[in-house]
Design brief:
heterodimer; A: five-stranded mixed β-sheet; 14 strands; globular; B: 299 residues; alpha/beta; 41% helix
Chain lengths: 332, 299
């Protein structure tokens, strides 16, 4: 395992700018790629693609159902559409289109949901997207990918477009520190072990990967060796890696910028229940709507901080130790 | 010709571009009745399906598949094929019947409609049924999907066209009007929508459930080229399809005034027969009327 993590982290860069740049870069080689927007291209920076390739960019107006359906028609003609709007809108207003035509009909359409999680922080709960993974994960044939830093956006987007069938690419709006070294080579469907450890495993996605790494460093100072796994693909989940981490470390903490219901934590819990039950804690937003505020403050208030991850690891270790003690007692 | 031969035979195709003759009109009109009979058998046999909206679209689908569409049943995925989006998916028994008689799959398979393991699902599924382009069932998708198909055709510099069949009940759905805006914005002359305006939806007349008149004015106000026809008159249908191909710079809507349940007197204009299933007596009465309907076009 090469060291993939920058130490210290690099400067923070806007994820949406990284996304717009990645679209343009990919558009040069993939002439079959078209980009659609529901009139938010100046928000998600898909307007960079519009400027570079005006003949391959379509603004359908503030009409998310049509955004997806027009993309379905373009895909039927052999093009690879990347549809863009705010993350929550794909999973809510356009959901029936996504279910019927992308997932059931297997249309080769990519959804780029920007402003994911709490990242459109000041616009408030109407714009926060904290249930999108749960909703879209329940749909057969869907692939869900969550990049963790600007480099991950650039490295994963070509694979998103290359993957046959519907893919949901879930992108933060804001400045995120560069956490990965250039050697980082993600592959859709495969989790990445970023740091080794045998006491517990922290599995994170998106902007919470940085918090997980910080938590692991703090725990290391206490003498707790935590394995850090980046699960950039929520579906199909790398269940083999989840099972291996459960068996090798005996405790798991999931960390995501999403509701604790049905996201990465839900997916990992399902896998553990089926294959290797071990103590598990889920870091995410409680089953509640949120509020407006500065991004980092919001993350902290709703339990998405490195400190919260450290606390969760302590809790899961206590449960693991209690289980171990019970087992020893039973054996005696 | 016996009735079973008429239904079982793969129909003659009149190539795109030829001018229609009285014999062609009679032949296609007769077949539309025979296909209604086939649909009646499918729905009666499975005790499930939608007759009214299938009967209202019989002539239009027959005209498209046996004359107007540039398609190749031996290559359902031929990239340059015309696209047909069957947005009113519940009426798919008629689509399946026409596809089978056009040669996309064996006519004998029609009897498996809505059965376990069948390729003929309750609503269209492209992965299962050759000739089906997109799923349908949840209503309102057709116009926006057709707009995407027309955009793709234009980008490719192709002359292929997208035809979309919608029901009038679908006009209640907001995404239909989003599709109208998109079609007009991009001036999609590769796009033709055929509106099966049969005036009846599941729980009542469209005038009662959700009034949509003056419907031609609405499409015109959205900058679409409008054509209004009698949707069971084969000559008017064929002329309208030719006319639609000649319009430049704008998408076209053919507003086809039709009768829900067309061809069976007691089914016509009745919401009950949106999804009603005939009993044995009704089945025989309906079959007799449809056979009579086919005979009237016998030359």
């Amino acid at each position: 395992m090469a060291n993939l993590i920058r130490n210290p982290f690099g400067e923070a860069l806007p994820m949406r700018k990284a996304y717009g740049d990645a679209l343009v870069e990919l558009g040069r080689s993939r002439t079959d790629m078209v980009v659609l927007s529901a009139d938010v291209s100046s928000s998600d920076f898909s307007n960079l693609f519009e400027a570079a390739f005006p003949d391959r960019f379509f603004n359908v107006g503030i009409a998310e159902p049509a955004l997806v359906d027009v993309a379905v028609g373009l895909a039927n003609g052999g093009l690879v559409p990347v549809a863009n709007t705010f993350a929550f809108l794909f999973a809510t207003r356009a959901l029936e289109m996504v279910r019927t035509h992308l997932c059931y009909g297997k249309a080769n359409v990519k959804l780029a949901g920007t402003y994911a999680g709490l990242s459109d922080s000041f616009d408030g709960p109407t714009h926060h997207s904290i249930t999108d993974i749960a909703i879209l994960r329940s749909l057969p044939n869907m692939t869900i990918v969550v990049p963790a830093d600007p480099l991950a956006v650039a490295k994963l987007l070509p694979q998103v477009v290359e993957t046959r069938g519907p893919v949901y690419f879930r992108i933060c709006r804001n400045e995120v520190p560069r956490i990965f070294e250039a050697a980082y080579q993600p592959e859709i469907g495969k989790g990445i072990v970023l740091a080794n450890g045998s006491d517990a495993t922290v599995m994170a996605c998106g902007v919470m990967v940085a918090k997980a790494i910080q938590a692991a460093a703090a725990l290391a100072r206490e003498g707790v060796a935590v394995r850090v796994v980046e699960m950039h693909t929520i579906k199909p989940l790398d269940t083999a890696l989840v099972e291996r981490c459960a068996r090798e470390t005996g405790a798991i903490v999931t960390v995501e910028e999403h509701s604790v219901i049905g996201g990465l934590g839900g997916a990992v819990a399902e896998t553990l229940a089926d294959r290797a039950p071990v103590p598990m804690e889920r870091i995410g937003i409680a089953d509640t709507f949120t509020e407006s505020g500065p991004y980092e403050d919001l993350l902290r208030k709703y339990g998405l901080s490195a400190e919260a991850v450290v606390d969760a690891v302590h809790r899961v270790l206590a449960r693991k130790c209690a289980n171990d003690a019970r087992e020893v007692a039973v054996r005696r | 010709m016996t009735q079973s031969e008429a239904v079982g035979a793969v129909g003659n195709v009149y190539p795109y571009g030829i001018r229609h003759t009285p014999e062609m009109i009679a032949d296609l009109s007769r077949r539309a009745y025979e296909y209604r009979l086939q649909v009646l058998r499918m729905v009666y046999g499975r005790k499930s399906g939608h007759l009214g909206g299938a009967f209202s679209i019989a002539e239009i689908l027959t005209a498209l598949y046996f004359h107007h569409l540039r398609i190749d049943p031996s290559q359902p995925q031929w990239p340059e094929r015309d696209r047909l989006v069957f947005s009113k998916g519940h009426a798919c028994a008629m689509l399946y019947t026409v596809l089978a008689h056009r040669g996309f799959f064996p006519v004998e398979e029609l009897s498996t409609f809505r059965s376990l393991d069948s390729r003929l699902q309750g609503h269209p599924e492209p992965a299962k049924t050759p000739g089906v382009e997109v799923p349908a069932g949840p209503l309102g998708h057709g116009v926006a999907i057709g707009a995407g198909m027309a955009l793709a055709a234009r980008m490719a510099g192709s002359r292929r066209r997208a035809y979309v069949i919608i029901g009038d009940g679908e006009l209640d759905s907001g995404v239909i009007w989003e599709g109208l805006l998109v079609g007009a914005k991009f001036g999609l002359n590769h796009l033709a929508v055929i509106l099966d305006y049969n005036g009846v939806q599941q729980t009542g007349t469209t005038a009662h459930v959700m009034p949509t008149e003056p419907i031609a004015d609405k499409w015109a106000a959205f900058n679409w080229h409008t054509i209004e026809i009698h949707g069971h008159n084969m000559a008017e249908i064929l002329d309208a399809l030719d006319h639609a191909d000649e319009v430049h710079g704008r998408p076209v809507v053919v507003i086809a005034r039709t009768t829900k349940g067309k061809g069976v007197s007691f089914m016509e204009n009745s919401p009950y027969w949106h999804g009603g299933i005939p009993d044995q007596q009704q089945y025989h009465a309906a079959a007799a009327e449809l056979e009579q309907g086919a005979r009237q076009w016998q030359i």
